[in-house]
Amino acid sequence: MDKIVHIVQKTRKKPLWRSVQFTIATLLLVNFASPLHVVAKVTTTKIPAVISQEPENSAEAACLIDVNTGRILYEKNAHKRMRIASLTKIITAWIAVRSGKLDQMVTVSANAVRQEGSSVYLAYGERQTLRNLTYAMMLRSGNDSAMAIAEFLGGSNDRFAKMMNIQVQKLGLHESHFMNPHGLDHKDHYSTAHDMAVITATALRNPVFKTIVKTKYYSIPWEGQKWDRKMKNKNKLLWMMPNADGVKTGFTKLSGRCLASSASSEGRQVAFIVLRDGNDWVDSQRLLTYGLTAFEVRDVVKLAPLHAVTKVQYGVEQTVPLQPMGHVNYVFGKNEDVHVKTRIVQLKRLSAPVKRGTIAGRVQYWFQGKEIGEVNLITTREVKPKGILGRIRDLFL
């Protein structure tokens, strides 16, 4: 029977002790191997199925976001710059899955092997696909995997960090700065709950990333061994909450406990970030439930009736009514007093004959000072042209 090795969490140790620790752990696991797929018992707190009011939480900073629309549903010190530990790996993984290189082979460097903290025990010169390294980084929080990814995609830690910073700036975020791909403490490495919520929601809209972070178990080859690395996701929320589907744990002594989590229901997905939260599992379940049950998707086009016309030249009618074509879905609180504003742009002056359904402009929908969607305006009926005598008469009027 194949032996199964459980990739364990490793704390920072001196290099000599690291080698001894690895050897002892390997020998013990080989001789007393047990199936990894036995899920450890998780202590649960009963969470109501519906939460309509903002729950209390213990986080120093927190932010809840609707993934599809990007609307912020809850904030607590959300713009405070803080250490984020391994939540950093969310953007590292996002860059990796968008690189188009997931099936290319990566050779692990000595520098990657030397990384402190969490590890999947990569060996110098070992070759893994970028996909396998991304799974190892997100499920087991391997810092060695993160550095191998950074060196492969960026050429070095510093160049990859520059890539990370450019990507978040493209998202319009200016309260984050990254110095490495894994989140080990550095005085110039920081983000905010708000920025991490936006980054996480953006990443979750990528189907490959979404699949990786909801995966409970994954195996990658272990060169030189007769068994694979069998990895179990460290995110306990995947077992504690039936509809949880991500995302990443994080911890250092300076950052405290951090967690990026997500959950889905009835076509909606929300993500929640907590920074320095000693009660992260329970707080996350409560806020995710709140985000999914206290809010709903509504069609803004129906919420904001529009009465618009445009002029028609040479027609038997001088104007034609317009209506929006399509839908703009946005999330609102179930008891929220919603005021949506409209703004007509790119309005065209038409010339007869005009067919019904002709695009004559666009309408933007605004909520709380932010544009939340835009659709075409189309004519609601046809307009026939005037005869030649009518056109001549118009020239003299």
Automatic annotation (TrEMBL):
Pfam families: PBP5_C, Peptidase_S11. Pathway: Cell wall biogenesis; peptidoglycan biosynthesis. One of its GO terms (molecular function) is serine-type D-Ala-D-Ala carboxypeptidase activity. Its EC number is 3.4.16.4. GO terms for biological process: cell wall organization; peptidoglycan biosynthetic process; proteolysis; regulation of cell shape. InterPro entries: Beta-lactam/transpept-like (IPR012338), Peniciliin-bd_prot_C_sf (IPR015956), Peptidase_S11 (IPR018044), Peptidase_S11_C (IPR012907), Peptidase_S11_C_sf (IPR037167), Peptidase_S11_N (IPR001967). The active site is at 86 (acyl-ester intermediate), 89 (proton acceptor), 141. It catalyses: Preferential cleavage: (Ac)2-L-Lys-D-Ala-|-D-Ala. Also transpeptidation of peptidyl-alanyl moieties that are N-acyl substituents of D-alanine. Signal peptide: none annotated. Substrate binds at residue 248. Keywords: Carboxypeptidase, Cell shape, Cell wall biogenesis/degradation, Hydrolase, Peptidoglycan synthesis, Protease, Signal. Residues 295-385 form the Peptidase S11 D-Ala-D-Ala carboxypeptidase A C-terminal domain. Belongs to the peptidase S11 family. Removes C-terminal D-alanyl residues from sugar-peptide cell wall precursors. PANTHER family: D-ALANYL-D-ALANINE CARBOXYPEPTIDASE (PTHR21581), D-ALANYL-D-ALANINE CARBOXYPEPTIDASE DACB (PTHR21581:SF33). This is serine-type D-Ala-D-Ala carboxypeptidase. It comes from Sulfoacidibacillus thermotolerans. The lineage of its organism: Bacteria, Bacillati, Bacillota, Bacilli, Bacillales.
